[in-house]
Amino acid sequence: MNTTSVNFIRNQPYFINMNRTYQPLTANLLAELAHLFPQTLIWEDKELLFNHSHDETENLSYLPAAVFIPKTTTELQTLVKWAAKNKIPLTTQGARTGLAGGALPVAGGIAVSMEKMNSIIAIDADNFQITVEAGLITGEINRVIKDLGLFYPAETSSKDSSFIGGNVATNAGGARAVKYGVTRDYVLNLEVILPNGELIWTGANTLKNSTGYNLTQLIAGSEGTLAIITKAVLKLVALPTHRLVLWAEFDDILEAGKAVTSVFKGGLLPAAIEFMEREAVEVGVAYLNHNPTGKKLDKTAYLLIELDGNQPEVLQKDAETLFEILQQHQVGEILYADNAQQQEELWKLRRCIGHAVKISSIYKEEDTVVPRAQLPALIVFIKNLAQQHNFKAICYGHAGDGNLHVNILRGNLSQTFWEEELPQLISVLFEYVKQLGGTISGEHGIGWVQKKYLSIVCSPAHIELLKMVKKAFDPEGILNPNKIF
Ligand SMILES: Cc1cc2nc3c(=O)[nH]c(=O)nc-3n(C[C@H](O)[C@H](O)[C@H](O)COP(=O)(O)OP(=O)(O)OC[C@H]3O[C@@H](n4cnc5c(N)ncnc54)[C@H](O)[C@@H]3O)c2cc1C
Questions:
Q1: 240-356 belongs to which CATH class?
Q2: What is the per-residue pLDDT for 9?
Q3: Where in the chain is the domain with CATH 3.30.43.10?
Q4: pLDDT at 4 over 50
C-alpha cells in the first residue's frame, strides 16, 4: 500500500491513500477517454485531482485517476457506457460536503463531478413543484421561489454549498425536518443514469404513486451506489408568512434535553428545535468573531427554536406556551428574535458550528439518532464515555428529531487511541444508541467511514438484502464501489 501524509488546505494533514482495488485506468484507456472527451475529462491537473480526492470527512483523501465534469446528460451517459464496458469505477460527486466519505473515490477510477449540471429547469407554481439538475446548490431553490410564495423546507446547514443531487443521494435532513420532513419527503421523481448507461425516470410528478416498486425512494439515500441522479422533481410548500426565533439558555444540559420532549407534549410543533452545548456555541462565536446573542456564554446548553405560521396571533400564543414549558425546565434567559436580520444572525451561528468545529481540529463526526425522548439519556452517556476515556466530544444537533452530532476532536490524542481504541468506543456508543431504539446515522449516510459499524444495527440478512439490491442495479459494481457495506 502506498500511503503518504501531506499538509494541504485547512492546516490539517490529509491522509492520502493511493490504494487501488479496482481495474486501473491505464494510459491506453485514459488516452481513449481523453480522445472521446477532450473538454470534459481532466487528468493532468494535480491540484484539481487533489480537490476531488476528499470531502468533509475527517482528513481522508483518495486520489481519482481522472475527473469528469459533464455539462449534459448525454455526455454523462456516454461516459457511463464506456466505464461499464471497461469496468472502470465511477464515484459521483456533488459539492463534497459529505461527512461519511460517500464521495471519496476510494477505488480510484473516475470522479464524476456534477458541478456544471446546475440549472433550474422548470418551476410549476400551480402544482407546487420545481425541476432541477443535480448539481444545483440547494440554497438557490429558496432564493428563486421565495417571491412566488413557495418554500423548499428540506434545506441543510450546508445549503449554500451542498448540491441537491448530494442531498437526495444522502437523504439529507436539516433543521426543519422535525416539522417538514427530510429530503426524501420532497422528492417526487428522479431522472437517473443506471450503471449500464440507460436513462430512466423513476416515478411520476404526482403526489401519489402506486406503480410498482418505489425506485425514487430507493435511490434517495443510496449514496451514489445504485444510479447517478441527473434531475430531480421536488415538491414545494407554501412559504409561511411569519417566523419567530428563540434562543434559550440552560444551566443544566439534561434539562435542555428534557425541555425538547416537553415542547411536543405541550402540543407545539416548532419548525426547528436545535440543541448546542456551550463549547459548540463558543467555537461558532469564535469562528464568526461575533456573538449574535449578545450574552455571556456561561451556560451549559442552548436551544434555538423556530416557530412559523401564517397568523401572528397564533404564533404569539404558541410563544407564550413555549415560554411556560421552558420555565418548567429551569430555563435561564430567553432571547426573542422577531425581525429577519436577528433571526438570520442566530441561524448563522447555529449553521456555522459544524464547519467551525471541523477547522479547529481533525475530528470524527458521529450522526447518532434516537427516539426524541431518549435524547437526554444519550447526552449523559456520551459525556460519561468521553470523561472516562479522556477524549473531547462536542455535541450539537437537530434535537427535535433526536439527531445528535457528536464531534470527537483529535487534539493531542495518540495515534493508537485514535485508530484503535476510539473505534471500539464508537461501537460502544452505537450499541447504546441501538438499545435506545436509535440508529447510527440520521442524515449523513454510511458511505465509507461508517460501514464498519453497520452490522451493529443491521442483521446479516438485512445486509445481504442490501447487497442483492446493489447487485440488481450494478452487477459489475462500477458505481461508487466499496461504500455502505
Ligand atoms: C458544515 C456542514 C454542515 C452540514 N449540515 C448538514 C445538515 O444540516 N444536514 C445534513 O443532512 N447534512 C449536513 N451536512 C453533510 C452534507 O452537507 C450532506 O450530506 C449533503 O447532502 C452532501 O451533499 P453534497 O452535494 O456535498 O454531496 P457529496 O458529499 O459530494 O456526496 C455525498 C454522497 O452523495 C453521492 N452523490 C452526490 N451527488 C450525486 C448524484 N448526482 N447522483 C448520485 N449520487 C450522488 C456521492 O456519491 C456520495 O455518496 C453538513 C456538512 C457540512 C460540512
A1: alpha beta
A2: 42
A3: 3-113
A4: no
Q: Residue 406 gets which letter from DSSP?
A: E
Q: Is 397 in the pocket of ligand 1 (CB under 6 A)?
A: no
Nearest atom (ligand 1) to Cα of 173: 11
Dist. CA 95 → ligand 1 center (Å): 7
Select from 3.30.465.10, 3.90.226.10, 1.10.8.60, 3.40.50.720 the CATH code of 120-238. Answer: 3.30.465.10
In the numeric block, the cell 421523481 is attached to 189
Q: pLDDT grade, residue 21 (50/70/90)?
A: low
Q: Global pTM?
A: 0.95
The grid coordinates of residue 204 equal 411520476
Task: Name the DSSP letter for residue 221.
Answer: T
CA of 135 to the centre of ligand 1 (A): 11
Q: In the chain, which residues fall in CATH 3.30.70.2190?
A: 240-356
* pLDDT at 356 exceeding the cut of 80: yes
Instruction: Give the number of the atom of ligand 1 that is nearest the alpha carbon of residue 223.
Output: 49
Query: Residue 100: pLDDT above 50?
Result: yes
Cβ of 224 closer than 6 Å to ligand 1, yes or no, is yes
Per the prediction, the chain carries an average pLDDT of 94
Q: How far is the CA of 219 from the centre of ligand 1 (A)?
A: 14
Nearest CA to ligand 1 atom 7: 156
What number of residues does the chain have?
A: 485
* Band of pLDDT at residue 360, cut at 50, 70 and 90: confident
Element (H, E) at 41: strand 41-42
Task: Give helix 278-288 / helix 340-360 axis angle, nearest 10°.
Answer: 100
Whether 427 contacts 388, CB under 8 Å: no
448 contacts 57 by C-beta, under 8 angstroms = yes
Is the CB–ligand 1 distance for residue 171 below 6 Å?
A: no
Residues of the chain with CATH 3.30.465.10: 120-238
The residue written with cell numbers 456555522 in the block is 352
Backbone angles phi, psi at 137, to 5 degrees: -65, 130
| CATH label, 3-113, candidates 3.40.630.30, 3.40.50.720, 3.30.43.10, 1.20.1250.20 | 3.30.43.10
**pLDDT for 25:** 86
Say how many Å lie between the CA of residue 169 and the centre of ligand 1.
7
Q: 134 in helix, strand or coil?
A: coil
Report how far ligand 1's centroid is from the alpha carbon of 270 (Å).
25
Q: Is 480 in the pocket of ligand 1 (CB under 6 A)?
A: yes
- Ligand 1 pocket mutation, candidates 53, 67, 97, criterion most atoms within 8 A of CB: 97
Which atom of ligand 1 approaches the CA of 442 most closely? 11
Question: What number does the ligand 1 atom closest to the CA of 192 have?
Answer: 42
* pLDDT tens per residue across span 116-169: 999 999 999 999 999 999 999 999 999 999 999 999 999 999 999 999 999 999
